[in-house]
Model the fold of this input.
Amino acid sequence: SLIAAGHLDVVAAAVGVAALLVAGLRAVRPAPTGWWWAVAAGACAGAAADIKVDYVLFVLAACWALRRFPGRAAVAAAAAAAVLVGSYAIVGMAAVRALAGRASAGLGWEYYGFIFRHLGISLNAAVPVAACLMLPLAVLALARIPAGPGDQPGGQAIRAGLALSLAWLLLWPHQYAWYSVMIMSVLVCYPASRLDWIAMAWLSAITFADIPGLGHASHRLMNDALDQIQYQNLDHLAPLVLLGALVTFVTLCINLRWRQQSALSRFSDCQS
Done:
């Protein structure tokens, strides 16, 4: 989804994770020069959002990690805004049009189309519904997902980045498989838990549904028999898997049965 397809998301993830690690490091071990670290964290997060706008969530995660130091959190937010707004101002309306043109792109409206068609609801309601659900899910995730790297360098920001990314990925109706690098890039630094299976189920379902010749282009590239197989399997199965990932995540947030590994070796290996 990333390397073979040549998507820029991998670059955004690299810069975004750097922002989280820097912000989280100084949230745990503040230093007299912490203002410069806050600027660096914000600038990296802003640059990631420049590449892919959904990485604005990493700006919020960095600020969340620095919440004990409101001044530094404000500096990080200002640095991110300076990079993001400044670059859009330089490029001009071309950047805004490119962003607007991609805002409604993505595969299959996820499970919204599957559910709304059966209820007779217009798909135009998917985005408002998702927007209303994202905030409570993000709050739930921040409060209930596993402790993660804890007080390790970058740990608080990594956890916040994972929580916000999951809320967005599981609910927003416009998605592609490669968008999942936002959570994979931080999940790889996280202790093993059932979160891994939720992420892999989501990624597998949407990847298979978007294979060239399948998914939304199948009616142009496949004969009637194969098209019917595709419709009966991927068009019905993928939304159910995506919905199942969301329901499973909410359930685990409530009952806390994450089955998380007690050792934090995965995060230490990532740091080294």
